[in-house]
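Shipment paperwork, digital attachment
Item: protein structure file
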Amino acid sequence: MTSAKILLATLTLGAAVAFAGQASAEKLKATLNGASEVPATTSKGTGALDANYDAATKKLTWKLTYSGLTGPATAAHFHGPAESGKNAGVAVAIPNATSSPVDGSAVLTDAQAADLLAGKMYVNIHTKANPGGEIRGQVTK
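Attachment content:
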C-alpha cells in the first residue's frame, strides 16, 4: 500500500470515528417558568437548562440556571415520563440545586433515555412557598 493510500485510509477512519462520536450526543434544553407548572404558579422566577445526552455512555450532563424565585430553592428534579401539561414522578434528582448555577450529571436507564429523547421529561425547581414546584420547563432537543 502506498503512503498516500495509508494516509487516505487513516483520514477516512478518523472522520468516521469523529462522526460516530458526534452522532451519539444530543443537545437538549428547557426554559423554566411558573406558567409551565401544573398547576401554574404566579412566580416571576425563570430558569434555563442546557444539557447533553451521550447515548454511548447513557450519561446526561446539565447546567441549570435560575433566578427570581420566591425564596431559596429547596430541590430540583427531572420528572417523567410526562408530556407538557402533565405531571410525573421524579426520574432523576438534581443535587446541590440550592443555588444557581447547578452543574451535574447522571447515567440514565434505557427507559429514562427513551423518555428524555422523546420530550417526555421536564425539570422543575421547588421552593418552600411552592413545594410542588415553582418553575418548570419541558426538556426538548
